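PROTEIN FOLDING TASK:
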Amino acid sequence: MDPLYAFVFLGLFTPGPNVILLTASGARFGFRASLPHVLGVALGVGVLAAFAGLGMGALMAALPGVEQALKLVAAGWILWMAWRLWQSRPSGAPDARGDRPWSIGRAVLFQWVNPKVWAVILSAASGYAAGLSPWGEAARLSTAFAGINLFVCLFWSFAGSLLGYLLTTPGAWRVFARVMAMALAGSAVMVFA
Protein backbone atom coordinates (compact mmCIF):
# COMPACT_ATOMS: atom_id res chain seq x y z
CA MET A 1 0.00 0.00 0.00
CA ASP A 2 1.25 3.45 -0.89
CA PRO A 3 2.08 5.35 2.35
CA LEU A 4 0.54 8.40 0.71
CA TYR A 5 -2.93 6.97 1.38
CA ALA A 6 -2.46 6.76 5.15
CA PHE A 7 -1.01 10.27 5.23
CA VAL A 8 -3.90 11.68 3.19
CA PHE A 9 -6.50 9.89 5.31
CA LEU A 10 -5.06 11.12 8.61
CA GLY A 11 -4.51 14.62 7.25
CA LEU A 12 -8.06 15.00 5.98
CA PHE A 13 -9.98 13.04 8.64
CA THR A 14 -8.77 15.13 11.57
CA PRO A 15 -10.74 18.31 12.39
CA GLY A 16 -10.22 21.34 10.21
CA PRO A 17 -12.47 23.76 8.36
CA ASN A 18 -13.99 21.11 6.05
CA VAL A 19 -14.73 18.68 8.89
CA ILE A 20 -16.31 21.43 10.99
CA LEU A 21 -18.41 22.81 8.14
CA LEU A 22 -19.56 19.38 6.91
CA THR A 23 -20.49 18.22 10.41
CA ALA A 24 -22.45 21.43 10.99
CA SER A 25 -24.14 21.12 7.59
CA GLY A 26 -25.14 17.52 8.29
CA ALA A 27 -26.53 18.51 11.68
CA ARG A 28 -28.41 21.51 10.34
CA PHE A 29 -29.62 20.43 6.91
CA GLY A 30 -29.31 16.64 6.98
CA PHE A 31 -27.12 14.20 5.11
CA ARG A 32 -28.85 14.28 1.72
CA ALA A 33 -28.97 18.08 1.54
CA SER A 34 -25.25 18.21 2.38
CA LEU A 35 -24.20 15.94 -0.51
CA PRO A 36 -23.41 18.84 -2.93
CA HIS A 37 -21.09 20.24 -0.24
CA VAL A 38 -19.46 16.80 0.14
CA LEU A 39 -18.94 16.42 -3.62
CA GLY A 40 -17.58 19.96 -3.94
CA VAL A 41 -15.00 19.40 -1.21
CA ALA A 42 -13.81 16.13 -2.75
CA LEU A 43 -13.63 17.67 -6.22
CA GLY A 44 -11.93 20.86 -5.03
CA VAL A 45 -9.31 18.99 -3.02
CA GLY A 46 -8.63 16.69 -5.98
CA VAL A 47 -8.11 19.63 -8.34
CA LEU A 48 -5.84 21.40 -5.87
CA ALA A 49 -3.82 18.20 -5.37
CA ALA A 50 -3.39 17.90 -9.14
CA PHE A 51 -2.02 21.45 -9.30
CA ALA A 52 0.39 20.61 -6.47
CA GLY A 53 1.58 17.59 -8.45
CA LEU A 54 2.26 19.89 -11.39
CA GLY A 55 4.53 22.07 -9.26
CA MET A 56 2.28 24.66 -7.65
CA GLY A 57 4.14 24.23 -4.35
CA ALA A 58 7.37 25.40 -5.97
CA LEU A 59 5.54 28.33 -7.54
CA MET A 60 4.09 29.34 -4.16
CA ALA A 61 7.55 29.20 -2.58
CA ALA A 62 8.92 31.41 -5.36
CA LEU A 63 6.15 34.00 -4.96
CA PRO A 64 5.77 34.72 -1.23
CA GLY A 65 3.47 37.68 -1.93
CA VAL A 66 0.88 35.36 -3.48
CA GLU A 67 1.12 33.05 -0.48
CA GLN A 68 0.60 35.96 1.94
CA ALA A 69 -2.41 37.22 -0.04
CA LEU A 70 -3.94 33.73 0.04
CA LYS A 71 -3.41 33.56 3.80
CA LEU A 72 -5.20 36.86 4.34
CA VAL A 73 -8.12 35.85 2.12
CA ALA A 74 -8.30 32.45 3.83
CA ALA A 75 -8.34 33.91 7.35
CA GLY A 76 -10.98 36.47 6.40
CA TRP A 77 -13.25 33.93 4.72
CA ILE A 78 -12.94 31.45 7.58
CA LEU A 79 -13.73 34.13 10.17
CA TRP A 80 -16.77 35.23 8.13
CA MET A 81 -18.01 31.62 7.99
CA ALA A 82 -17.43 31.22 11.72
CA TRP A 83 -19.52 34.35 12.35
CA ARG A 84 -22.31 33.00 10.15
CA LEU A 85 -22.21 29.66 11.96
CA TRP A 86 -22.25 31.45 15.34
CA GLN A 87 -25.45 33.23 14.33
CA SER A 88 -27.12 30.24 12.66
CA ARG A 89 -30.38 28.73 13.72
CA PRO A 90 -31.43 25.08 13.53
CA SER A 91 -32.88 23.84 10.28
CA GLY A 92 -36.56 24.68 10.05
CA ALA A 93 -36.23 27.77 12.26
CA PRO A 94 -37.08 31.07 10.57
CA ASP A 95 -33.90 32.62 9.22
CA ALA A 96 -34.00 35.95 7.42
CA ARG A 97 -30.63 35.30 5.75
CA GLY A 98 -31.97 32.34 3.78
CA ASP A 99 -29.10 30.03 4.72
CA ARG A 100 -28.94 26.77 2.80
CA PRO A 101 -26.39 24.00 2.31
CA TRP A 102 -23.32 24.79 0.25
CA SER A 103 -23.36 24.21 -3.49
CA ILE A 104 -20.71 22.15 -5.27
CA GLY A 105 -19.14 25.32 -6.68
CA ARG A 106 -18.89 27.11 -3.35
CA ALA A 107 -17.28 24.05 -1.73
CA VAL A 108 -14.80 23.72 -4.62
CA LEU A 109 -13.81 27.39 -4.35
CA PHE A 110 -13.37 27.20 -0.59
CA GLN A 111 -10.59 24.64 -1.00
CA TRP A 112 -8.38 27.33 -2.59
CA VAL A 113 -8.32 29.23 0.71
CA ASN A 114 -8.52 26.29 3.12
CA PRO A 115 -5.22 26.37 5.02
CA LYS A 116 -5.42 22.80 6.28
CA VAL A 117 -5.97 21.40 2.80
CA TRP A 118 -3.03 23.42 1.47
CA ALA A 119 -0.79 22.16 4.26
CA VAL A 120 -1.73 18.50 3.77
CA ILE A 121 -1.49 18.66 -0.02
CA LEU A 122 1.85 20.47 -0.12
CA SER A 123 3.27 18.12 2.53
CA ALA A 124 2.10 15.09 0.54
CA ALA A 125 3.45 16.47 -2.74
CA SER A 126 6.89 17.07 -1.26
CA GLY A 127 7.13 14.19 1.22
CA TYR A 128 5.43 11.36 -0.67
CA ALA A 129 6.45 11.96 -4.28
CA ALA A 130 6.75 8.75 -6.29
CA GLY A 131 9.23 10.08 -8.85
CA LEU A 132 6.65 10.16 -11.65
CA SER A 133 6.36 12.75 -14.39
CA PRO A 134 4.54 15.93 -13.34
CA TRP A 135 1.34 14.69 -15.03
CA GLY A 136 1.75 11.27 -13.37
CA GLU A 137 2.24 12.91 -9.95
CA ALA A 138 -0.76 15.16 -10.58
CA ALA A 139 -2.97 12.15 -11.40
CA ARG A 140 -1.66 10.16 -8.42
CA LEU A 141 -2.19 12.98 -5.92
CA SER A 142 -5.54 14.02 -7.35
CA THR A 143 -6.93 10.49 -7.28
CA ALA A 144 -5.69 9.83 -3.75
CA PHE A 145 -6.96 13.11 -2.34
CA ALA A 146 -10.33 13.18 -4.11
CA GLY A 147 -11.09 9.49 -3.47
CA ILE A 148 -10.09 9.39 0.18
CA ASN A 149 -11.63 12.79 0.89
CA LEU A 150 -14.97 11.72 -0.58
CA PHE A 151 -15.28 9.02 2.07
CA VAL A 152 -14.00 11.33 4.83
CA CYS A 153 -16.57 13.96 3.88
CA LEU A 154 -19.37 11.41 3.67
CA PHE A 155 -18.47 10.21 7.18
CA TRP A 156 -18.46 13.68 8.75
CA SER A 157 -21.65 14.89 7.10
CA PHE A 158 -23.41 11.65 8.09
CA ALA A 159 -22.08 11.97 11.65
CA GLY A 160 -23.41 15.53 11.71
CA SER A 161 -26.82 14.36 10.49
CA LEU A 162 -26.95 11.84 13.34
CA LEU A 163 -25.91 14.54 15.77
CA GLY A 164 -28.77 16.66 14.44
CA TYR A 165 -31.22 14.25 16.05
CA LEU A 166 -29.85 15.28 19.45
CA LEU A 167 -30.02 19.01 18.73
CA THR A 168 -33.77 19.28 19.13
CA THR A 169 -33.96 22.48 21.15
CA PRO A 170 -32.79 25.98 20.19
CA GLY A 171 -30.46 25.97 23.22
CA ALA A 172 -28.80 22.71 22.20
CA TRP A 173 -28.33 24.00 18.66
CA ARG A 174 -26.90 27.29 19.94
CA VAL A 175 -24.29 25.49 22.07
CA PHE A 176 -23.34 23.18 19.17
CA ALA A 177 -23.18 26.02 16.62
CA ARG A 178 -21.08 28.21 18.88
CA VAL A 179 -18.61 25.46 19.74
CA MET A 180 -18.24 24.67 16.04
CA ALA A 181 -17.92 28.40 15.21
CA MET A 182 -15.15 28.85 17.79
CA ALA A 183 -13.31 25.81 16.41
CA LEU A 184 -13.65 27.21 12.90
CA ALA A 185 -12.40 30.65 14.01
CA GLY A 186 -9.47 28.92 15.70
CA SER A 187 -8.54 27.36 12.39
CA ALA A 188 -8.21 30.87 10.92
CA VAL A 189 -5.29 31.43 13.30
CA MET A 190 -3.61 28.29 11.91
CA VAL A 191 -3.34 30.06 8.55
CA PHE A 192 -0.40 32.06 9.87
CA ALA A 193 1.31 29.26 11.79
The two ends are 32 Å apart (CA to CA). The chain has nine helices and no strands. Residues 134-164 form the longest helix (31 residues).
